[in-house]
Design goal:
By secondary structure, this protein is α+β, with helices and mostly antiparallel strands. The protein is built from 5 helices and 8 strands.
């Protein structure tokens, strides 16, 4: 789909009112699939608006529910919104926050009050290796610990 540009007169940002070069603004946020643009915000205001408004809109439960209801009519847009929306998964270890990407659930890293860490498996492996090497463990011990990690089932406390 093509991007459509709405002509805009003038060279003042409509938020800060500074006379400046205006940047392309998606009238419907790009994160929500917007293709209609206009140039009426300066780069600074456009960035601030995107950081605050668009990020919040994308994670809003109402947007998630709207995406679920339109998945058969607007498959690509709805799937994109649903996959990036925060989800909670449950395991024997309790709830974990994450999101879906390409149909797979990805856990968001989190440090627990007891000092342990919840991480996606690939990131957990890298963190463990880095921690062991930084602590000065010998290569044999490090290899055994990594092998033990690799052999462990997912979603279990190690």
């Amino acid at each position: 789909m093509r991007t459509l540009k709405v002509p805009w007169p003038g060279d003042k940002c409509i938020l800060c009112l500074n006379k400046t070069i205006l940047s392309k603004e998606h009238l419907i946020p790009e994160a929500l699939g917007g293709k209609l643009t206009a140039e009426f915000l300066c780069l600074s205001c456009n960035s601030e608006l995107g950081r605050n408004l668009e990020a919040n809109a994308k994670s809003d439960p109402a947007v998630f529910m709207a995406a679920k209801t339109m998945i058969y009519r607007f498959t690509t847009l709805a799937t994109s919104l649903i996959q990036s929306h925060p989800h909670i998964a449950y395991s024997d270890q309790g709830p974990a926050l994450g999101s879906f990407k390409n149909g797979d659930f990805h856990v968001k890293s989190k440090r627990l009050v007891d000092g342990s860490v919840i991480q996606p498996t690939d990131l957990g492996r890298k963190s463990l290796l880095k921690c062991l090497m930084k602590s000065g463990y010998q290569e044999v011990t490090t290899r055994k610990a990594i092998a033990s990690f690799d052999d462990a089932p997912d979603n279990k406390r190690l």
